[in-house]
Write a structure and sequence with these properties.
single chain
Length: 210
């Protein structure tokens, strides 16, 4: 698999929105990553063909194979690209936040902004684990799939104001994030915003009476 670097970071592409980057040979790699993410998320790995992906990216099949080796290599690269994007945004969001509650609320708010700009990110987060289970050739991305969980583990271990064992909090946070990713796949984005607001109300202890 080629290691030709992208000329534009995942964060920069998210800020400008999904789609093909400006012209230039290195930006073709970024265009393929964006096209792969969108089509893998909406059509599924098996249905999204190499032809569909290169047509969306505005290039040719040999270019895809040059950068990623094959379709499975592109999928693995998209997993890494999406992780870089999400974890970069989350790390920036929790900077300076001391308590775990502040950190969770910060990543929830950041996820609203991120998914608003690039809705296919949330859809891909939901789809990727299912695709790995279905297609043995995608196991090359298995290690990369662990990064979000590792980030959550570290965030929970460092966060103050927790009254239960850290591993229980990790389960809670992972459930929130993956559950919200399903909401991000909704055709009605406003539902995601409402879900985040509702979860923040729950986290603040404003739902149940004693």
């Amino acid at each position: 698999m080629s290691t030709v670097p992208a000329s534009e970071s995942p964060e920069a592409r998210t800020r400008r929105g999904p789609g093909r980057p400006p012209g230039g040979p290195l930006n073709t790699r970024a265009a393929l990553l964006d096209a792969g993410r969108e089509l893998f998320a909406t059509q599924g790995y098996a249905t999204a063909t190499a032809r569909d992906i290169v047509e969306r990216a505005g290039c040719t099949a040999p270019v895809l194979y040059h950068h990623f080796g094959n379709k499975a290599g592109l999928f693995a690269a998209v997993v890494k690209d999406v992780n870089d994007l999400i974890l970069g945004h989350f790390a920036e969001a929790i900077e300076g936040k001391r308590t775990l509650l502040e950190r969770i609320e910060a990543i929830l708010d950041e996820s609203v902004r991120m998914y608003d700009v690039a809705p296919s990110v949330g859809r891909f987060v939901v789809a990727a684990p299912l695709e790995l289970a279905r297609h043995p050739e995608l196991r090359i991305a298995a290690g990369e799939m662990l990064r979000l969980g590792q980030f959550i583990e570290q965030m929970c271990a460092d966060g103050a104001g927790v009254q239960v064992e850290p591993h229980r909090v990790e389960y809670i946070v992972q459930t929130l994030i993956y559950g919200l990713s399903r909401m991000a796949a909704s055709p009605r984005p406003v539902e995601y915003v409402h879900a985040v607001d509702a979860l923040k109300t729950l986290l603040r202890g404003q739902v149940f009476t004693q």
